[in-house]
Amino acid sequence: MTQAITGTRRQAALGFIFVTAVMDVLSLGVMIPVLPELVKRFNGGDTAAAADWNVLFATTWGLMQFVCSPVLGLLSDRFGRRPVILTSIFGLGIDFLFMAMAPNLWWLFLGRILNGMTAASFSTAGAYVADVTTPENRAKGFGLMGAAFGVGFTFGPALGGFLWQFDHRLPFLVCAGLALCNWLYGFFVLPESLPPERRIKTFDWKRANPVGSLKLLTSKPNLLGLAGVGFLFQLAHNVLPSVFVLYMGFRYHWSPQLIGLTLMGSGIAGILMQAFVVGRVVKAVGERGALLIGLASGSLGFLVYALAPTGWLYLCGLPLFAISGLIQPGLQGLMTRRVAPHEQGQLQGANSAMMGIASILGPILYLTPFAWAIRHDATLHLPGLPILIAAALMMGGAALAFRFAHPISQEARPD
User: Fold this and answer.
1) For the structural domain made of 218-406, what CATH number should be given?
2) Mean pLDDT across the stretch 185-196?
3) Alpha helices for 338-382 (secondary structure H)
4) Do residues 255 and 360 touch, judged by C-beta distance below 8 A?
5) How far apart are CA 170 and CA 165, in angstroms?
6) In the Cβ-directed half-sphere of 276, how many Cα atoms lie within 13 Å?
7) How do the domains of the chain map onto residue ranges?
8) Would the pLDDT of 59 be above 70?
9) Whole-prediction pTM value?
10) Does 1-187 carry CATH code 1.20.1250.20?
């Protein structure tokens, strides 16, 4: 399993990493309709108490991502990607079983902590993609990761809602089964992507933490600026799970079924973008051009969402916002070129840690202005206020990208 990956083996490995990424994001998507209702049941139907617990669950999950992603990333730089990915997948399956059997809220809370720790394997999967793709094709590889993100968030909530109607523990059991089957497949099929000679020699705890991981970002030209672009993008993107369901129901009076179809349509548009457009655009305009186009389109898409007075005009923003799918492939392509092979795991861990911070801040940043805006809707007429905040953050990311997202020369690339 440690031999070099070439040809067909590379494609099979990327396929497995795609499925792994889908499972990680699917676990998040399934939780969207399931976890609040389960928490509400444990609280005897008390919606207010359930809301308090859900805020605690969401911020704790983000905190676990923030703390554990750099550790897993550096572990993969030291011991290889394969053992870290397989351990995380197995742990994710056990976590789902744990939550399925939870007898009370505190057990469920512990399960969410473990879930946040093991779902941090997304960072190691990103390092695997960087290992098995050439710098020229890396953006296309990260486009595959973006497609996995779209698949998980498109079909995860639908799967969770469908299984919930049969039994409130069934979504957890099904996800556990999928994760453990994925682990079995990977155990027998997944090759190692990082050969021993390219690994770091020692595991340094000083670098295996969110603060220590920032040292890598400050040690390479423009890498910290690019990480800032990624953070602003993640923070802006967090508006989608935070308020969009409430926003569409309040402003356009859409039914839950129509909202679900709209979110699914948005997800499918994102998947098609990643699958068929990203590679062509990056080839035509480069990673910097793709990043800037994606950030500009994402900003405009958010503006349409925030200001559209009717549902039909809102839907016109879907294809425009789908072009924001160029952001991550372009950004990851630029960032991974600036670090050596033995630093890819640490880089992806640092990126995932920032994603964890965005997950912690997002609900507060968007839900509070939304509640204030709808309370004053008669005078302000601005229920889209939180989405305007997201658009401003995306524009800030575009300004940073214009300053720091410059291609690196062949001579300046680390070995």
Assistant:
1) 1.20.1250.20
2) 85
3) 344-375, 377-380
4) no
5) 9
6) 7
7) 1-187, 218-406
8) yes
9) 0.76
10) yes
**Mean per-residue pLDDT for 291-295?**
97
**What is the SS3 assignment for 309?**
coil
Cα–chain-centroid distance for residue 232?
Answer: 13
Q: How confident is the model at residue 75 (pLDDT cuts 50, 70, 90)?
A: confident
Q: Which residue has the tokens 């720091």?
A: 404
List the structure tokens of 251: 């402003």
Q: What share of the chain is helix, strand, coil (3-state, %, to 5)?
A: 80, 0, 20
Amino acid letter, residue 347: L
pLDDT in tens, 269-279: 888 887 788 88
**Inter-residue contact 1 to 195 (CB < 8 Å):** no
Whole-number Cα distances in Å, 120 to 34, 68, 269, 360: 21, 7, 26, 15
Residue identified by tokens 């992806």 is: 348
**DSSP-derived secondary structure for 311-345:** HHHHHHHHHHHHGGGGHHHHHHHHHHTTS-GGGHH
Q: Per residue in 134-156, is it b (16+ CB within 10 Å) or e — as a string?
A: eeeebbbbbbbbbbbbbbbbbbb
First to last CA, the chain: 23
Asked if residue 408 lies in contact with residue 337, where contact means CB atoms within 8 angstroms, the answer is yes
Round to whole Å and give the CA distance between 409 and 253: 52
Q: Report how far residue 197's alpha carbon sits from residue 123's, in angstroms, rounded to the nearest whole number.
A: 21
Q: What token pair was written down for 21?
A: 């990424």
Q: Is residue 58 a contact partner of residue 28, using CB atoms and an 8 Å limit? A: no
What gap in Å lies between CA 155 and CA 34, rounded to an integer? 13
- Tokens representing residue 234 in the block: 């993640």
What distance in Å separates the CA atoms of residue 56 and residue 33, rounded to the nearest whole number? Answer: 17
Of the candidates 306, 326, 149, the residue with the CA atom closest to the CA atom of residue 239: 306
* Contact between residue 20 and residue 125 where contact means Cβ atoms under 8 Å apart: yes
